[in-house]
């Protein structure tokens, strides 16, 4: 009876708040929204809101424009294009409903460095509407933000802003991709690919990403596009890649390529795409053993660098050369149920968890009926889950002591410590005592540290004083993904 009274009281308070605001407004990502934009209705996919013929989602975590666009593409979407006052009003209301303010946020507009007055949308629709604030654009940047003094503004693309993605029906004719002037070099014929941002050279397509990432995250980003960090097989390809970088940033910016060596045999180098390491362009005196990952544009050539440095990077996709070969983390793994074996000559798994064996895809480790991967780069919980979904996976659920022990050993083997890391657990803001897994399996096991959960957060981390803890979801932590057969309904 007390619960029903509380719910009724909450409804009255919410209704009173809405009436005071002068318009109906539902909770973020949930109920129907009404504004001057027209009728909005929630779609069946969590977080996406349908307006007219498209679905929209607001992401509150700030990112540079390029990374924001990359995140949208993870959802088969783009940073939002806008084609009418109604759409513009809807997007502003969507932002307000999430953060309670007119927060400046990225949209999908960008201009050409060659012709700054020409603006485009990332979804390749026609730029047939604008809502520029008076005096804008003023040439201060190449990317489009909304909610600048009530309208749009051109801003430097490296600013971290929240953003709005949209997917569905695209409008207008096809147009040139970002950075659409063709690179010119002695490398050979280049032609723009029809997919935004990719440049074709010989039998492969290449894309430069200006936002700095550690080598592992850079490779992960490339894989989101069915690509790898670029391999290089000739002076022509090497010259092309250097020119591609120059055309984007106007300098010989040091950037990641796909080369890496083995900690066991440092003189042996590999490419992430599995092709033969049949060409090199090492700067004199390199590699000198200072790192395990390959950067270009170090004093004109290549260098071995610590993999944790944040650098821009070049991805490539298409025809791979040479015979297939083992990828990092590819030796078979066995736990206490079998013999220990090295991963990439380095990692050993020896938990009482059971039999582990390598999956055919680099980095995934099979345990029982599922595959697991640890990501060392810290992300907020929502971004970590998004990264897992890029691999058709979820943040890991746990259903037994064996699985719990395996996951803790997996983390230890990567970072050499019991690093607190995200798992897939989350609770309801309405009923905090109720916990769920992102893979929709039954929450039939727990390993809470004594005194936890204590209501300090809504997302589940492991390795908190040996067990689990509820933590603020906006903390940056490494994380474990899992995919395959799940338990329960």
Keywords:
disordered N terminus; Mannose-Binding Protein A, Chain A; 489 residues; flat; 3 domains; alpha+beta; 6-stranded antiparallel beta sheet; 30 strands
| Strand elements, count | 30
Fraction of residues in helix? 10-25%
Q: Under CATH, the topology of the largest domain is which?
A: Mannose-Binding Protein A, Chain A
Number of helices: 7
Strand content: 25-35%
Overall pLDDT metric: 75
Q: Can you tell me the CATH superfamily of the largest domain?
A: Mannose-Binding Protein A, subunit A
Sequence stretches where pLDDT stays below 50 over 5 or more residues: 1-44, 169-195, 319-361
- Note the quaternary state here: single chain
Q: Biggest sheet, open or closed, and with what strands and sense?
A: 6 strands, antiparallel
Q: What is the alpha-carbon Rg in Å? A: 25 Å
Q: Identify the CATH class of the largest domain.
A: Alpha Beta
CATH architecture annotation name of the largest domain: Roll
How would you portray this structure in words?
With 489 residues, this protein is of the alpha+beta class. It folds into three domains: 6-168, Roll (Mannose-Binding Protein A, Chain A); 190-318, Mannose-Binding Protein A, Chain A (Roll); 342-484, Roll (Mannose-Binding Protein A, Chain A). Helices cover 19% and strands 30% of the residues. It has helices spanning 2-21, 65-74, 85-99, 215-224, 235-249, 381-390, 401-415; strands at 34-35, 38-42, 49-51, 54-63, 78-79, 105-111, 119-121, 143-148, 151-155, 161-168, 190-192, 199-201, 204-213, 228-229, 255-261, 269-271, 293-298, 301-305, 311-318, 342-343, 347-348, 356-358, 365-367, 370-379, 394-395, 421-427, 435-437, 459-464, 467-471, 477-484. The strands form seven sheets. Strands 1-2-3-4-10-5 form a six-stranded antiparallel β-sheet, sandwiched between helices. Strand 1 and strand 2 form a beta hairpin. The protein is flat. Mean pLDDT is 75; it is low at 1-44, 169-195 and 319-361.
